[in-house]
Amino acid sequence: xxxxxxxxxxxxxxxxxxxxxxxxxxxxxxxxxxxxxxxxxxxxxxxxxxxxxxxxxxxxxxxxxxxxxxxxxxxxxxxxxxxxxxxxxxxxxxxxxxxxxxxxxxxxxxxxxxxxxxxxxxxxxxxxxxxxxxxxxxxxxxxxxxxxxxxxxxxxxxxxxxxxxxxxxxxxxxxxxxxxxxxxxxxxxxxxxxxxxxxxxxxxxxxxxxxxxxxxxxxxxxxxxxxxxxxxxxxxxxxxxxxxxxxxxxxxxxxxxxxx
Length: 260
Ligand code: GAR
Fold this sequence. Notes:
It is a single chain. This protein is of the alpha/beta class. It has one domain (7-259): 3-Layer(aba) Sandwich (Rossmann fold). The chain contains 9 helices and 9 strands. The protein has helices spanning 18-28, 47-54, 64-70, 74-78, 84-93, 105-126, 145-151, 176-182, 218-241, and strands spanning 7-13, 34-41, 59-61, 133-136, 160-164, 187-194, 204-211, 245-249, 255-259. The radius of gyration is 19 Å and the shape is globular. Bound molecules: glycinamide ribonucleotide. Glycinamide ribonucleotide binds next to α1, β5 and α9.
């Protein structure tokens, strides 16, 4: 019998990496027909990198903060091989990820130029590996269209997934559990979705919900949420490995995921 091709998974994270652990465990016990082939971080020294190293998985860091301090944005971008008109198209598509507190149009564009220079470094690291899927596991940065378009080559089969700690499209952003809890929601959730040009707006693959117990403290709620994430993300990655996910146009023109 021909050997089944295993999914090659690259993981990006910014912190503790408990979802990375769940994915690596699932690969090891064959709940995912795949292997983690690299782990990258935008923050040096985080626990997620150590978790990878102890399992002999190669790691790298692209230190967004440090690189950001040393570049001007536009001038550095002009040193890359990309054409200005091509970059301007990426900039137009990526406005949705610029932090809302940056209001002046020129500053919004400058923010994106800088971000593209950093992502160019990230791409160079990632391109050293052969991979099928890029799984964001607590990676706390949004991508520009420049980055996304170079990873996604087939529109019906995107290659970047993210796990978000809320019932999307409610509560996108960096504080999914806090927003859920502080709004008095009666259920918490986590969502795995493909990454598109917006912040946590991409086609939803699957979601898991759990009750908020009356009188429960936030830490307990969040910990129970994480335990659900460790079930949900491996399950979604296995669907990807089985090639059962397709992105199609939904009734209102929004792109949605069909599971076969
Ligand atoms: C998880 O709760 C994940 O859903 C969240 O960060 C945490 C990472 O935990 N991701 C986001 O908020 C993305 N917007 P981990 O490092 O222990 O896996």
